[in-house]
Amino acid sequence: MNNKNILIILPAKDFNSEEFILIKQTFEKNSFKVFISSDAYALCQGDNGMKVKADVSIFNIHASNFLAVIFIGGDGVRKYWDNKSYHKIANSFAQSGKVVAAICAAPIILQRAGLLNNKSAVCYLSDRKELEKGGTKYLDASVVTEGKIVTGQSSSNTVEFSEIIIQFLIKRTL
Predict the structure, then answer these.
(1) What torsion do the CA atoms of 58, 61, 65, 70 make, to the nearest 10 degrees?
(2) How many distinct structural domains can be found in the chain?
(3) In Å, how far are 66, 120, 154 from 4, measured between CA atoms?
């Protein structure tokens, strides 16, 4: 596996710091190289004050450079549910046959990008109605895979979510 690059997309403000840290650590521990992207002008700020610098501009992302894209949740991601740039990125990865993953409130981005129409997914419980509005079937599970789309319910499922993506990538790229 030559390309072991993973892209994590963070909201500019109020991303879930726990999800970010655990996902990044889990992928790095498994020899993946993690790149961060955001539309933040300077540093992204997490829900606990954590600051993270993006490696790649949201406007310079090419799916061919990565195995997967992961959208991190948190209160700040709700501002991105209808973000056309985020929808374009999600669709670009999906059309390139890459893994597209989202956790917590972020699966709504995938749903509004059209990737979850008539499919099953999970998201943060309080966002369930938003997920179902677009014809997505909400499953009461910690992690749901639907083709190459992986959705996770909440920060308490972050390690399981990450490990499922890693196993999926290892099986698909051997």
Answers:
(1) 50
(2) 1
(3) 7, 27, 25
What CATH number is given to the structural domain containing 118?
Answer: 3.40.50.880
Residue where the block lists tokens 């179902």: 132
What's the CA gap between 67 and 76, in Å, rounded?
A: 25
User: Phi and psi of 119, rounded to 5°?
Assistant: -125, 170
Look at the pTM and tell me if it is higher than 0.90: yes
Give the tens place of pLDDT for each residue, 95-128.
999 999 999 999 999 999 999 999 999 999 999 9
Residues 6+ apart with CB under 8 A from 108: 78, 81, 123, 127, 130, 131
Residue type, 163: E
Q: Which domain holds residue 92?
A: 5-173
Between CA 82 and CA 79 the distance in angstroms is 7
